[in-house]
Amino acid sequence: MVQDNINLATLIGSRICHDLISPIGAINNGLELLSMADNPPAGPEMELIGTSVDNASARIRFFRIGFGAAGHQMVGRAEITSILRDLYQDSRLTLEWLPEEPQPRAAVRLAFLAIMCLETAMPYGGRAEVSEAEGKWMLKGTADKLNVDPTLWGILAEQSPDTSLQPAHVQFALLPKIAGDDGRRIRSSSNDTSVTIQF
């Protein structure tokens, strides 16, 4: 039953993202057409709309992989780095994706969920790095100041699966369950300036 619920949730995530990306793209196309007009509108309002559309598009693309159904296809480095660049270019968090080769969508989904977990521990920004070697993944975040909530991070080790979560923290519940279905186990550790997730 739990597995059925997770599968249904990922299908819902895929459907929502699929349906939202089209109107967001249409708005972006409309902005491009306006910019090519003889007297294109200018000002902070247009800049705000453009920035907001770009951010919404990046988030939907990120969520589509992180919360959507995985399937069996591969995801290329160019697509992954494009999503991450667009999402974090104006963020206090610098994120580096090290794998050069295309990766299974299921593994990228786990990595994206883990990135969201790292974000919660780095509210003041910092640097995060995603690496992979022979199917083993490691995500490491470093910052001068971290905020690691032991209750949330305990969920990754399935120490407290019954903890009620805020919507912003749903990734902590999904990551270990989806990893377990893939035959993987989530391990995490932290100190004063770094936090690590491995699977």
Task: Draw up the topology in text.
Blueprint: H1 2-35, H2 44-67, E1 74-75, H3 77-88, E2 93-97, E3 103-104, H4 105-121, E4 126-133, E5 136-142, H5 150-156, H6 170-181, E6 187-190, E7 194-198
Parallel strand pairs: 2-4
Antiparallel strand pairs: 1-3, 4-5, 5-7, 6-7
Helix pairs in contact: 1-2, 2-3, 2-4, 4-6, 5-6
How is this structure best described in words?
This protein is an alpha+beta fold and 199 residues long. It has two domains: 1-69; 73-199, 2-Layer Sandwich (Heat Shock Protein 90). The protein has six helices and seven strands. It has helices at residues 2-35, 44-67, 77-88, 105-121, 150-156, 170-181, and strands at residues 74-75, 93-97, 103-104, 126-133, 136-142, 187-190, 194-198. The protein is globular and about 60 Å long.
Report the sheet with the most strands, covering strand number, pairing sense and barrel closure.
5 strands, mixed
What is the β-strand count?
7
Provide mean pLDDT, rounded: 87
Count of helix runs: 6
Which range best describes the helical content: under 10%, 10-25%, 25-40%, 40-55%, 55-70% or over 70%? 40-55%
Estimate the strand proportion.
15-25%
Shape: globular
CATH superfamily of the largest domain: Histidine kinase-like ATPase, C-terminal domain
Number of domains: 2
Give the distance, in angstroms, between the N- and C-terminal Cα atoms: 24 Å
Global Rg: 18 Å
Q: Specify the CATH architecture of the largest domain.
A: 2-Layer Sandwich
- The SSE string, one letter per element, is HHEHEEHEEHHEE
